[in-house]
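Supplementary Data S3. Sequence and structure tokens for construct A.
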Amino acid sequence: MGNRSLVVVYYKGEYRIAQYGQWVGFPDGQGVVVLDFVKDPKNLAKLKTALDIPGRLYEPTDIQLEDWAEQHEKQWQEDMRRNFTGSSVHTYERSDPAMPSVHRNTSARILDLVANATEPVPIENGISFVADTLFCEYTYVVDLDTSTLEVYSGRREGAVQTRFGGVEGVSAGGGPFLTASFSFANLPEEDTFVLTATGKQREKADEDDKEGANHEESERDDDDEEGEEGDEQAAVEK
């Protein structure tokens, strides 16, 4: 589904990568891809190494972006012709983008792409997208300076926003809100990650607390009724 997200790598005080993604941006989609990547220390080491290589990442020119966009459009049209012509039953096959690192379908896979790159990688830094809390539904931050994985959402009220105050377009007290933060040394299993990142873990805890409170109240009511019955019986015996 078209749930937009942003995958960010923060390293040595800078947003080195901020990759826009068009599809399945929820924690059980792109979020899990990020989680699986950071769970492997070898991935993190390779990512740091790549970021430390001068010129490994570079900002493409507008002309380059336009050229790649035209190539991507041609690929999409060819995919449509190949997959939806001459048959009533189709198995959709998508061609690899001409330049994956600047394609909207890459999303969280940018981490693996950069970590394993052997040549310069063009990066279109989209950090300003965090200011669009309507369409940027989730932001995943791999903070290599503090060794944490953070999840932000523009759709959560009452959470604390701690990071993006200096980003253009993010007003004071605005921007996405922190919904979850995990140390690389203590990353959760997938189910817990998804529940926590979406706020479902807190909702579940609130429901459990409410259920426990209702149970205690019910027990007190039962005790009161038993006490009243005992008093009535004592009065009858007298």
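Construct B, processed identically:
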Amino acid sequence: MRESQYNIGLDKTPANYVPLSPLSFLARSAAVYPDHVSTVYEGRSFTWAQTYERCKRFASYLAGKGIGVGDTVAAMLPNVPAMNEAHFAVPMTGAVLNALNIRLDAPSIAFQLDHGGAKIILVDPEFSSVITDALAQMSGPKPFVIDVDDAVFKGGKRIGEIEYEAAVAQGDPGFTAIPPEDEWDAIALSYTSGTTGNPKGVVTHHRGAYLNAVSNILAGQLGQHPVYLWTLPMFHCNGWCFPWTIAAAAGINVCLRKVEPSRIFDLIKAHGVTHMCGAPIVYNTLINAPDAPKANAARRVVGLIAGAAPPVAVLEGAENIGIKLTHVYGLTEVYGPASVCAEQPGWDELPAPERARMKRRQGVPYPLEEGVTVINPQTMQEVPREADIIAFCRSHMSGFKTPKAVVFGPIPKTSTGKIQKFLLRNEVGSAKAITA
């Protein structure tokens, strides 16, 4: 094979190639927008310069405790500033962040700490009891415990050897981050419950975190300097990569310890929240809250909603309280969202029920996702796409019977196997036409 001229003398060098890592987002925002607010939480606030310094200090402290490339640092924390900072400080040392699900029991946590080999764990006082039990149930070496106090939470106790702010204060603000040698290097370890046996570990890398963080900006239309409310747990797929996303967009992290409707509405108003994420149950809770703002009283917020196709009632209800939803779908294994309902021009002019029906769909690849498809698990063959199905129906059925859209999902049936057509009609809003 003839060697191409473009392969001669054009090797990768530090001047023309750097492995992708979301750590660069923090460094850039601190340099370009040092005085822009990065984080707010219960009366405290930090700028991007301050957040960068805090992350370097904590990374320095971790390095001083022997943490380095390939080590694991776990975190049992709600959506507080320390949890956001851990997404940068831990990988700055070359280590891997294991964000633990705060809803798990002691045996599950003990398994993950053993399996992941955590050498250090950050613990919020609310979870001191379950972590104490988990540590007692571990079979391997126990991690060094760092307490992360929170004045908002009343209760719990310290179980560690040092408190987080003291550890940050001990660190060197001049610490130099250790970038990944290869963008394929691990940045985070997560666990999925699976259907059988112990939780299954999922390792994600710097490249994927970088790409999905940028994809979030594009798919969610975050723009520059978004104000992001943390209604989505940071332990869930690393908050769908949004700690890194908000750093890339030089936005504001509005931290939230617990999902409480009244508190959420207050924060939206007080900080001018522009974006949020969550599961259908979160938005349903907000929609049905007695103090939910209505119509013109509601501030406009863009929300990403994940999981199965949200009911029309949720999409319409969210709009009524000022939240414009975009449906996304993904997995822990793909860094959170991997597909999105890409809204088309003209949808805003559609009647609310029709607009909601269209926005229930998802399945096109995320902006920086190379491809997404749907496979039949029995045959492992790609299933027909919506346009193919509609074209097939048009050529084999009367025109008025041809579907306008196709929705994939479980078909509701009675215990005897009879299809519950009324539920299908309600799901797509066709029942209104029958009862009109």
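The chain has 16 helices and 16 strands. Residues 259-365 form a domain with the Rossmann fold fold (CATH 3.40.50.980).
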